[in-house]
């Protein structure tokens, strides 16, 4: 009599569990991190997330982020994606599941299932950053942790006359780190503005992508030129000359990392920059 072999007992019939793609929105205090990306020597946000996912999955899970923040830079809306073979956890339940395993300086704010070919970095159409400054009297130590302090109160009108200059597509070689390996230094900036929020001075900038340390270099240059310019018109001319020089030595000092936040990431049709890459 022939032996009956059920599919579930036959190793040749076994199928791999289907993978779901999960998108996370993450906030973190970057003060004690060497950056987003995994590094040989230093604590990273990506590594902490992958360690938590390893505990859940019992195997390694790769996490891809939308932007690679530097050491000391914070995030309110970093986006990351990963593939999971755990079918029993609803997509939105990855929030409490991961937060139980993550250190207190990283929080998952939301989780959802997305299309299988979603790529957190290549599919992003816009990245928005905010840089926070406390000016005048010395702030308390909690504010100091997340802002750049300046005893000088800069002129908002002069700052915005310079912020206007960087709108549109430009070659930002002046504001790129010497270690930036990007083939092209051209970037499209759709938002660039200074405003007051409570007692803080805030610079908001958004674009399709950014060069390494571009935002902090821009902020440092704005603050340095503001002290030299007599009025908004003069400041605009000075800023345009610095931008068009494509000379890193013409830029001001790079502003400290503590004031910079990756604010949020947008996804949708890419109006500027290269089309989304196929993965």
How would you summarize the topology of this molecule?
Blueprint: E1 20-28, H1 45-57, E2 64-65, E3 74-84, H2 94-99, E4 106-114, E5 124-135, H3 141-145, E6 148-150, H4 156-163, E7 168-171, E8 186-197, E9 200-207, H5 214-228, H6 232-245, E10 260-267
Tally of individual helices: 6
- Bulk shape: globular
CATH topology of the largest domain: Alpha-Beta Plaits
Q: Helix share of residues?
A: 10-25%
Name the CATH architecture of the largest domain. Answer: 2-Layer Sandwich
* Level-1 CATH class name of the largest domain: Alpha Beta
Describe the protein's architecture and organization.
This protein is an alpha+beta fold. The protein folds into 2 domains: 19-114, Pseudouridine synthase I, catalytic domain, N-terminal subdomain (Alpha-Beta Plaits, 2-Layer Sandwich); 125-267, Pseudouridine synthase I, catalytic domain, C-terminal subdomain (Alpha-Beta Plaits). Helix content is 22%, strand content 28%. It has helices at 45-57, 94-99, 141-145, 156-163, 214-228, 232-245; strands at residues 20-28, 64-65, 74-84, 106-114, 124-135, 148-150, 168-171, 186-197, 200-207, 260-267. Helix 4 (156-163) runs parallel beside helix 6. The longest helix has 15 residues, at 214-228. The model is unreliable at 1-15 (pLDDT under 50).
